[in-house]
Write a structure and sequence with these properties.
Largest sheet: none
Radius of gyration: 26 Å
Distance between the termini: 77 Å
Mean pLDDT: 87
Strand content: under 5%
Oligomer: single chain
Low-confidence stretches: none
Order of helices and strands: H
Structural class: mainly alpha
Number of helices: 1
Length: about 60
């Protein structure tokens, strides 16, 4: 015989575990990004600034 209370409890526990694992994984990724960024700064110096893209003027279209 199936136990609906146990099923509900396990579903809730699985949802909570997934939430915690997601946050833990995001924290690890943030630390990895920070570490790579610091190593890159040490090797290459300051991070180059991004350049704006210059929009090209479109030629007038003849019809």
């Amino acid at each position: 015989m199936k136990n609906p209370v146990m099923s509900f409890w396990l579903s809730s526990a699985n949802q909570a575990a997934g939430w915690w694992m997601g946050h833990a994984a995001n924290a690890v990724r943030a630390q990895q990004r920070a570490a790579v960024s610091e190593m890159t700064k040490a090797v290459a110096g300051a991070k180059p600034k991004r350049r704006r893209r210059v929009k090209r003027k479109t030629a007038s279209v003849r019809r």
